């Protein structure tokens, strides 16, 4: 079964760039799925960040679009998130998830990784 | 895009039923059956409970059911159990080719 695992720095300085990677195991990232990033600030709700298909096609949350880049590395069976010009408001647990776009659901999810923006 | 509206909290005694609403617009919930629900116990990742409005993934108890009417989707938990205590979120595909989540509902088992 497909499993996802996020990795990356847990601390990013304000105005810097947050970079995370999601490794996919138990299945190919080139299958007929999209792959999403979702975040959750401490004590708050879920926010969809964006998604990518193995072809490189992307869709982003309009509120984050100017700062977000999602990319895919098929050779490593992983996809990545970059969020630029971060502030304390970007402090959150970041999740990656398989995205069944045709049916509109996310499953499975990675365990999540906390990224704190602080100097 | 604005978050879908859910009640902050609902509660019920063991064995009772509770229903969580998820209100959107004609640009999301009202136009697509791509509505899903997630359960999130404290400190854990969300878990898919309902997809395409009313379908249950394998392994999800049939106590969980979903429905939709107009711009509002609903999740009902029948025969509430202590293990159902968690936060629940709805999600919908939108006409902008994006997704939006609900504000989240805390379910408390009294």
Please describe the biggest sheet of chain A, giving its number of strands, its sense, and whether it closes into a barrel.
7 strands, mixed
Tell me the series of helices and strands of chain B, N- to C-terminal.
EEEEEEEEE
User: Which class best fits the helix and strand makeup of chain B?
Assistant: mainly beta
Helical percentage of chain A: under 10%
Overall geometry of chain B: globular
Q: Superfamily at the CATH H level of chain B? A: Immunoglobulins
* Oligomer designation: heterodimer
Specify the number of helices of chain B: 0
Percentage of residues in DSSP E strands of chain B: 35-45%
Share of β-strand residues of chain A? over 45%
The total beta strand count of chain A reads 11
Low-confidence stretches of chain A: none
Descriptive notes:
The complex is a heterodimer of chains A (119) and B (110). Chain A has 119 residues and is mainly beta. In chain A, strands 2, 4, 5, 6, 9, 10 and 11 form a seven-stranded mixed beta sheet that branches. The model of chain A has no long low-confidence stretch (mean pLDDT 96). Chain B is mostly beta strands and 110 residues long. In chain B, the strands form two sheets. In chain B, strands 1, 3, 4, 7, 8 and 9 form a six-stranded mixed beta sheet that branches. In chain B, strands 2-6-5 form a three-stranded antiparallel beta sheet, with no helix packed on it. The model of chain B has no long low-confidence stretch (mean pLDDT 97). Chains A and B meet through strand 5 and strand 10 of A and strand 3, strand 7 and strand 8 of B.
